[in-house]
Amino acid sequence: MVKRDRIEPTKTQIAGKPWQGLVSLPTHALARSPAFTLTELLVAIGILSIMFTLLFIPMTQAFDNARRGRILAELQNAADYALEIMVRELVQAIEVMPQERVDINGQPLDLLDGVSGDDDTLSRIDFVVRSVKDDTLSPGDWRQAYTVVTYYIRLGDPSRPFRYMDTGDQPSNRRQIFRAHWRVDPNIAPEPQQRDAQGRWIVSGAWIMADLSGLPKDKPPQNGGLISFNALTPPDIDVADLRFTVERRSKIEYRDRKPVAVVVEMVLRKPTPGARIKGGNPNETDVPSLFIRRRVRVVLPNVQ
After folding, report:
1. Is residue 54 very low, low, confident or very high in pLDDT (cuts 50, 70, 90)?
2. CA distance 121 to 208
3. Are strands 277-278 and 281-285 parallel, antiparallel or unpaired?
4. 48: which of 62, 166, 170, 226 lies 20 to 30 Å off by Cα?
5. Phi-psi region of 92 (alpha: psi -120 to 50; beta: other; left: phi over 0)
6. Quick one: three-class SS letters along the chain?
7. pTM of the prediction?
């Protein structure tokens, strides 16, 4: 007969005290604590990722739409500001100078708009005013004199080439609308006397200059020159197109074909948020730009 020894629990001495009893571990203490398995954790992470993705996509689209709306508002405000000044001054014009003009070599007007050698005849307009009501751009000394106001398109920095996008240390150089208020003088703008075979006036001086910011300053008692020079659009907005179309009376004699209205057309644009340079060309983007088109017809009541 096999004699089985009874297994006695291990005696433990606590804190140096004599034995006070037997300590035995309960059976449930040896069981594993409840926890997530690796599979359950991966499933939970996957579900959370899907939920966050579904949440962030609409938020990102909302932010993009907000940025687009802000840019369109900037374009609208810039167009409204420029047109407000143009309309106010064109209404008070007493004469609109002919746009069809060439230099003594027969070359048409070529503005500093980033494209050389093209015909920019319609991108500039010159008109005579007696005085401009509510004029805050010119000194008060010349608000009651016969002067010329010129609108035209030009690069923000004419000494640099056109650059639509910023590239590293090369900032953008976009086109803007400029306003030159000046007084005619035979030394800087001789009166045209002849026309070519196509009926275009042969002009010189300020009448054919690509940029009027270089005119001498006109201060009393000088006879003529630049009174004020201002940009009508901000430098961060590109004027993609500017066009002035003069409507005249239907008369056989040119002297009788007085202007009756001026149609102003412009296109302003700005890069879409997140747009990048396409193919290394700083003048092209991988996504279409945001732009607005404006067209205004201004009647000339004071031109007789």
Report:
1. confident
2. 10
3. antiparallel
4. 62
5. alpha
6. CCCCCCCCCCCCCCCCCCCCCCCCCCHHHHCCCCCCCHHHHHHHHHHHHHHHHHHHHHHHHHHHHHHHHHHHHHHHHHHHHHHHHHHHHHHCEEEECCCCEECCCCCECCCCCCCCCCCCHHHEEEEEECCCCCCCCCCHHHCCCCEEEEEEEEECCCCCCCECCCECCECCECEEEEEEEEECCCCCCCCCCCECCCCCEECCHHHCCCCHHHCCECCCCCCCEEEEEEECCCCCCEEEEEEEEEEECCCCCHHHCCEEEEEEEEEEEECCCCCCEECCEEEEECCCCEEEEEEEEEECCCCC
7. 0.77
Q: At 163, list the tokens.
A: 């650059």
Other beta carbons within 10 Å of 92: 19
CA distance linking residue 294 with residue 103, whole number of Å: 31
Contacts of 1 (CB under 8 A, 6+ apart): none
pLDDT of 16 > 60? The answer is no
Give the rounded distance of the alpha carbon of 79 from its chain centre. Answer: 10
Give the count of beta carbons closer than 10 Å to the beta carbon of residue 271.
20
Query: Which pLDDT tens digit goes with each residue over 129-167?
Result: 986 555 666 555 544 568 899 999 999 999 999 999 998
The C-alpha atoms of residue 294 and residue 76 are separated, in whole angstroms, by 9
Structural tokens at position 74:
């900037």
Which tokens sit at 278? 């396409």
| Burial (CB count <10 Å: 0-12, 13-18, 19+), residue 148 | buried
Residues 6+ apart with CB under 8 A from 161: 114, 173
